[in-house]
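hey m, so remember when u said the tokens were messed up on ur end? i reran from scratch. heres the input so u can diff it against urs
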Amino acid sequence: MEGARKSPYSVHPLTEPVLSAPAVSFSEQIPLAVAAPSPVSLLYQFDETTALENLAARSNGQLILTATNKANVDSCDPPSNVTSLLHTFPESTSTLGIAETAPDVFIVAVGNYLGLGGVPGSFSVWSMNFSHNTEKPIVKNITAIPEAHSLNGMTAIEGSPDTISTTSHLLNFSWRLRSPDPLYL
């Protein structure tokens, strides 16, 4: 498709079986399962007070992390297992959904999330642009969505890189937002 940007993500098929059993004759005892070595490894462990909510992968391999109980967006560098604070959002307690709208440009849902729900009127969408400085993003408030009780899921719309969709799981609503335009539909 002409004009569409190539996704930085890729899917890799599983190359080793999770469970396997050797070929046996009926006279041999059959093991229930033989577990393959785990392909899962710990990148970084936050303290027990952090409730991670979402993540996005940057083109440089770093992960951007949001949390339901902190107004921070953090970065984790998997090869070094080092995290760093990228930004703290004022007058908020939570960062939730995150989506990449252009190479190294991310949209983040920010608001006040308490327990199982959000505070009505507190949610907004912000951009974090790393395209000019790979270490410290330019952060801008895109728009408030006051009728949202929470903004949880967020995704870029394929074929329309300046448009995202976000949802309020508490209201069962979904909004479409064009990132350079402060008006949502």
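this time it looks ok to me. The CA atoms of residues 18 and 36 lie 5 Å apart. if urs says something different then somethings off w ur setup not the seq
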